[in-house]
Write a structure and sequence with these properties.
Blueprint lengths: L12 H19 L4 E3 L2 E4 L2 E4 L7 H18 L3 H32 L8 H23 L27 H29 L12 E2 L2 E4 L14 E9 L2 E10 L24 E9 L8 E9 L2 E11 L2 E3 L2 H13 L6 E10 L3 H26 L1
Antiparallel strand pairs: 1-2, 2-3, 4-5, 5-6, 6-7, 7-12, 8-9, 9-10, 10-11, 10-12
Helix pairs in contact: 1-3, 2-3, 2-4, 3-4
Length: 381
Amino acid sequence: FTLLAVPFGEIFIRPLIDFTADFTVLALQLTGIPVFREGSHFAIPSGNWSVVEACSGLRYLIASFTLGCLYAYLIYRSRLRQLIFIALAIIVPIIANGLRAYMIVMIGHFSNMQLAVGVDHLIYGWVFFGLVMLALFWVGSRWREDSPVAAENKKAPMPAAVPATAAPPLKAAGFAAAALALAWASPAYLHHLERQAFNPAPVILSLPQTIGPWTASPPVAGLKPIFPGAAATAMREYRNGDQVVGVYIAFFRNQHQGAKAVTSLNILADEKIGEWIMTGESTRNLGGAKEPGSVRQNRLLWGNRQLLAWQWYWIGDTQTANPYRAKWLQAKQHLMGEGDDSADMVVFAPYDARPDEIAAAMENFIARASPAIRQSLEQAR
């Protein structure tokens, strides 16, 4: 149970946002309210709404899962019933969060955007979550098991009681000393790794003026990535005829809480300021480029302007778009005493029609720019 104290869940934020937006939009359509949706943003006749990180329901899910594990352990004896209740403690809050978002939108809609648009928005959510958990526990109590499940076969007769003998003092002292040594050694070793990985050298990161037929040009995309805590960043846009492709690199060194290469805090644009908003996310395989092989593809919208952005990670000498693999590579890098230098890579390009039309130009750019970008990253190390 103490494992639940380990922070987790960042990776679920985007899927939960997408599910909540899907659920809310579908419910509104079934209600007969017209909806225009762009990613996690949607508009109805009475106003505009967005499903942001705070609306993802991750806090509900973590709290429900934790309470569900505790409740299942205390109330049930059968392993099957425990697992079923824990599964419900995961599924129910996800669906309930979608229902909560729908009800908040409906309250705002029928009140002409006077209610459920401020602090009361959060209050309604927590009250609703409390009612959902109360209902879940009440339903679960109907199948409670107050005594251990009887075995199918008769138990063998209990052997005669044998007087307990105390462990020898030296043996007990040895176990205690070993436990204390282990408890001290783990933090000490982690502290040693952190000291070994610490690199006080400043990071110098730059991008070339010219990459093949691509020449540096004044920025036109208007993208403002937010990667807090980066040791250095570099951003430049290149032009080849009518095509414009940009590069953004965020280099991280001596990473710590709030300054990490692999985290949901790193975003391409702040949707709260009403500029670029995310309208779609997927994985794309790059056929022509050896590195990075695949990327996370994001489509962004700002009014009638559209932007295609590809993201991946550079961990040591390896490039990957998979955040799980990136975390594993970072752990390996840390344990091997190779420091923690990492970078977030972004290649972006504005487009007018279909995103596939600019994707070919972006692949061509990556194929030509990879050696120069790799050299810049190696020099930054």
